[in-house]
Amino acid sequence: MTTIRTATNPSRLRTALCAGTIVATLPYLALKIAWVAGSGIGVHGDGMHSGTMIGANLATLGMDAVAAVLALGLARPWGRRIPGRLLVLPMFVATGLLAPIAFVAPVAAVVGAFTGGISSSSDPSQDFIEGWVFAVVYGGFGLQAIGLVGGFVLHARERWAPVFALRLRDLPAGPADGVRRLIVAAVAVLGLVPVAIQLSWAFGSHVLRPDDTRTAAQSLVLDSGYALLTVVGLVGMLALTWRRRDGRSARGALVAAWVGTGTSFGWGLFWLLASSVTTPLSKGADMRGLALVGGLLALVGAVLATVLALLVVEAVGASDDRARRSGMIRA
């Protein structure tokens, strides 16, 4: 992929967004460090002292620390020297993990205001973690979603400007295009399976999740939100591969594909991993349904993300070749 390098420093807006992101990580990092060190702040009982929870806290501590480092790199000139793959892959995962929090959490807050709270005392996690912890954690994640993704977009527009200028007619055709279409169509059909399961949960079904203790409001808002973002990714990928070759901008489809497939992969992998271990948050719960949905979503997200990356790289490369040939002809 062509890299556009400039000597200018990051804009004030990008610096402010990234600085805000770093600040937003601090409460979460402080909580995780305290829990790993043995503190019981914000929790009931000694569940945080188990080896499983210490490992989980270290892993999530590391993930948020990476977010802070990424934000720092996006705010400094040396960030342009970070290899593209080392920047794009963690940002893809971060976007996917943060997108539902940015889009679904505000809806959950509104629903909670009218239903007496989105949480339920019957939820096992409520007996383990105090309510203010959720407010601090998810409030910080919401701010990170705005700052980190905003900073990355500004960085990418400067560094990979050709991607933002792509039009549907610029996307590669030929024999490989037919293969891409078949792969995306097949994976989209597969992706409808976890979407259907999540929507059934959203509307009160307990299929594959017999001991679900969430309230109706929780299930409706959360499960439908995740399912919708998955569908957005599927639609975006179908628009990029089964498109009419015209002069319309490809930006909307690219954004939909990036956010939706990132959500499928990031949360699918998280649910798959979370269902494979026993913690105070899942003790005694039947996690097989969540493991199935998580595994399918992770597979769908991984395949579609690979197709998306190859499609963009090939399209930008072809655009560069056309520009070079045009320059040679004019010369």
What's the gist of this structure?
71% of the residues lie in helices and 0% in strands. The protein has helices spanning 12-36, 51-75, 84-115, 131-159, 161-164, 175-202, 216-241, 251-274, 288-330.
Descriptive notes:
With 331 residues, the protein is an all-alpha fold. Helix 6 runs antiparallel to helix 7. It has two domains: 147 residues, no CATH class; 157 residues. The N terminus is likely disordered. The chain contains nine helices and no strands. It is globular, with a radius of gyration of 21 Å.
Topology, please?
Layout: H1 12-36, H2 51-75, H3 84-115, H4 131-159, H5 161-164, H6 175-202, H7 216-241, H8 251-274, H9 288-330
Helix pairs in contact: 1-2, 1-4, 2-4, 3-4, 3-7, 3-8, 6-7, 6-9, 7-8, 8-9
- Give the strand content: under 5%
Give the biggest beta sheet.
none
How many whole angstroms does the radius of gyration measure? 21 Å
Helix content: over 70%
Count the beta strands: 0
Please tell me the total number of domains.
Answer: 2
Distance between the termini: 25 Å
Sequence of secondary-structure elements: HHHHHHHHH
> What's the total helix number?
9
